[in-house]
Amino acid sequence: MNSMPAAALQEDTAAALHHALPAWVYNHPELTRLELKRVLLPSWQVVCHVNSIPKAGDYETFDLGPESVLVMRDRDGSIRAFHNVCRHRGARLLDGAGNCPGTITCPYHGWTYRQDGALIGMPVKESFPGLDRSTHGLRTVPTDIAFGFIFVCLARDADGELPTPVSQVWEPFAAELAPHRCQDMVPLSPISSDVWNVDWKIAMDNYLESYHVPVGHPGLYRMFTPDYDDQKRIPTVARGASWLRDKRSPRWSEGLYQSLIGNAATHLPEDQRRVWRFYSALPNLGVDVYPDMMDFFQVLPAGPGKCIIRGGVFGLPGASREMRAVRYLSDRINASVNAEDKWLCERVQRGLESSSYQPGPLSTIEGCMLEFHDLLRARIPEFRLPSAPTHFG
Questions:
Q1: Full-prediction pTM beyond 0.70?
Q2: Mean pLDDT score, 309-336
Q3: Which helix (H) or strand (E) holds 207?
Q4: Predicted confidence (pLDDT) at residue 2 exceeds the cutoff of 70
Q5: Are the CB atoms for 387 and 24 separated by under 8 Å?
Q6: Exposure string for 111-132, b = 16+ CB within 10 A, e = fewer
Q7: Is the link from the previous residue into 283 a cis peptide, with omega within 30 of 0?
Q8: What is the per-residue pLDDT across 183-227, written as a single tens digit (0 to 9) for each?
Q9: Residues 354-393 as b or e (16 or more Cβ within 10 Å = b)
């Protein structure tokens, strides 16, 4: 039996390589509309942690494209989500985060709603003859709560279905998350937003692969093993784990963190005090779980070549002095990593504008990124085209 010639084998292997998306999809004005409609709005999106709104009337808002949601704690302790839009003339009701101790009042004409969304009053009510207030309450938004976080879904899919509940999707990771007691954590700072001059898909591509870590994040590499050495993947969610190296980093913040974390994170089993876990959930969510705290971030489109990185940091209450010191060091390390990611992503955004670029081959380490690209191709077939079409679906 004749073996395949070496040249043919090399050609066959090259053909099996997957390639990145074409450059045009990272800076086209028409795609933001389709990505919102077909990918982002019909998915679960984090608004905040349950302990971000602990008291009756506490609320947090979340914006995605043209939609705005408010999540509020009702008097009975339940958590409700509503479209952040008055039923009269569509004015936005609330901004940011805060507390409505009694009612939600529209700043435009004064229509007033209870914390459960029911319309209870409007000025000059006699000027609305026959109006049935029971049919004009705030419109509700589907919610789901998983590992302490409140998720909302702003649109159903083409078949009218909601996505699979978050807790069900993440069930394979429940055991390794349990010791961290994520549901008991409290916000360590307000939810923040940062604008990057980068298409949201570039930022998400970056988070979905760790191939760049040894070069792009030298501090992480000094402290930890690459997280692609310890990976677990399920459909739409992937987890990488980085383990603290025995060799202490020569940088003071990195080395001090390595030496302190074992004695600070006493709420965890000893073997879990030396690992950082990074979870990515399609289409646009990242969750990082450390021995000292956890964070989430969302990558939200803000038009072609621009995105918003929205996120928050959470930790168990009653932190010891050692834990507070470790969190300070962790913040310093992560601020450096985030700045490196922003710089790297902006370089990609600029590079993709070159006429010389052709989609390059993907490493097997970039498998999560490939799953993301396949999702985009399935939802928006135009992504399969090498250049932008004249008309979009």
A1: yes
A2: 97
A3: helix 200-208
A4: no
A5: yes
A6: bbbbbbbebeebeeeeeeeeee
A7: yes
A8: 999 999 999 999 999 999 999 999 999 999 999 999 999 999 988
A9: eeeeeeeebeebbbbbbbbbebbeebbebbeeeeeeeeee
